[in-house]
């Protein structure tokens, strides 16, 4: 079998099973099976695929066709141009979460000109957000938490691989539970679990059957974590510190209402993603 034939076979099989982007997945799986870069495949389309490589490809295609996410099968996902290890212990970081990183950086630029910013990320998962910030800002102190010890193991490994261990402390705990109140942080940010029970029922099989439910479920209406965060965060923020949250589709209005009702913040701002969906909320604590 040639590389071109293998690609066509895998693409057709995945398409028949209703997998999105079958050609791209086929290319990534074959390059993984052959230990070649994707570009190298295109340069060698008539090259042979040996038996062992074919068997590996077949097994990957079978798993992918049954709904396993490609990122878990290949063991990594790019986020903020960083290659992160991912496996079923953590949520696969989504591209829209890069908006949260962008907004955090715009806040940190102002703070870091005066002092070393102290940042708290709640629900770090693979460590994607904390590691991206630590990569971009050299003088920073980040505490990143998760309730899942399994997720923290992946996050620690990613921080080590990325060379930012010295700037992030990982802590196991339930939201703000591990910390004393009293205004220690310049920025608290989170991409919390925010799907409602009905959204979880309607999820793709990739997410429903493979991603950790603890990373997805935001309670019956999806807003449980926002209620807790908005009510507790002011006690842990410095004066004029920032709360920055990723929100799900149609949640911005609700979360904005919670922030305004809390009364401890200035008027919150809503930031849209590239599809025009309000994706990030930011609010500054009053003095
Ligand atoms: C939506 S995922 C976000 C993961 C990662 N920050 C990202 O953006 O890719 C939410 C994370 O919150 C964690 N989590 C769930 N409940 C928590 C709680 N009560 N306290 C702290 N973390 C929690 C989950 O384990 C999961 O890693």
A few lines on this structure:
This protein is α/β, with parallel strands linked by helices. Helix content is 43%, strand content 18%. The protein contains 12 helices and 9 strands.
- In sequence order, what are the helices and strands, one letter per element? HHHHHEEHEHEHEEHHHEHEE
By secondary-structure content and strand pairing, the structural class works out as alpha/beta
Compute the number of helices.
12
DSSP helix fraction: 40-55%
State Rg. Answer: 21 Å
| Share of residues in strands | 15-25%
* Biggest sheet features: 7 strands, mixed
Unreliable spans: none
Secondary structure: number of strands: 9
Fourth-tier CATH superfamily name of the largest domain: Vaccinia Virus protein VP39
Q: Under the CATH scheme, which class of the largest domain?
A: Alpha Beta
Q: Tell me the span between the first and last alpha carbons.
A: 69 Å
CATH A-level architecture of the largest domain: 3-Layer(aba) Sandwich
The mean pLDDT is 96
> How many structural domains does the protein architecture include?
2
Query: Which descriptor suits the 3D outline?
Result: elongated
What is the fold named in CATH at topology level of the largest domain?
Rossmann fold
Bound ligands: S-adenosylmethionine
């Amino acid at each position: 079998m040639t590389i071109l034939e293998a690609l066509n076979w895998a693409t057709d099989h995945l398409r028949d099973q209703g997998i999105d982007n079958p050609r791209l997945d086929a290319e990534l799986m074959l390059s993984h099976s052959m230990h070649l870069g994707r570009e190298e495949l295109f340069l060698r389309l008539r090259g042979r695929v040996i038996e062992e490589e074919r068997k590996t490809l077949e097994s990957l295609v079978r798993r992918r066709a049954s709904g396993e996410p490609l990122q878990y099968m290949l063991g990594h996902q790019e986020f903020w141009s960083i290659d992160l290890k991912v496996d079923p212990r953590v949520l696969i970081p989504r591209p829209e979460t890069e908006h949260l990183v962008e907004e955090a950086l715009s806040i940190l630029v102002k703070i870091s000109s005066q002092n070393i910013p102290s940042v708290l990320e709640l629900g770090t998962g693979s460590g994607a957000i904390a590691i991206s910030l630590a990569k971009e800002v050299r003088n920073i102190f980040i505490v990143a938490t998760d309730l899942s010890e399994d997720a923290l193991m992946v996050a620690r490994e990613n921080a080590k691989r990325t060379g930012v261990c010295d700037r992030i402390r990982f802590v196991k705990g339930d939201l703000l539970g591990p910390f004393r109140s009293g205004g220690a942080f310049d920025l608290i940010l989170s991409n919390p679990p925010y799907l409602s029970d009905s959204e979880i029922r309607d999820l793709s099989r990739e997410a429903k059957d493979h991603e950790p439910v603890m990373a997805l479920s935001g309670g019956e209406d999806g807003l449980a974590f926002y209620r807790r965060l908005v009510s507790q965060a002011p006690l842990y923020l410095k004066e004029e510190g920032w709360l920055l949250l990723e929100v799900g589709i149609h949640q911005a209005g609700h979360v904005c209402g919670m922030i305004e009702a809390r009364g401890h913040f200035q008027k919150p701002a809503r930031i849209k993603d590239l599809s025009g969906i309000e994706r990030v909320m930011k609010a500054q604590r009053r003095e």
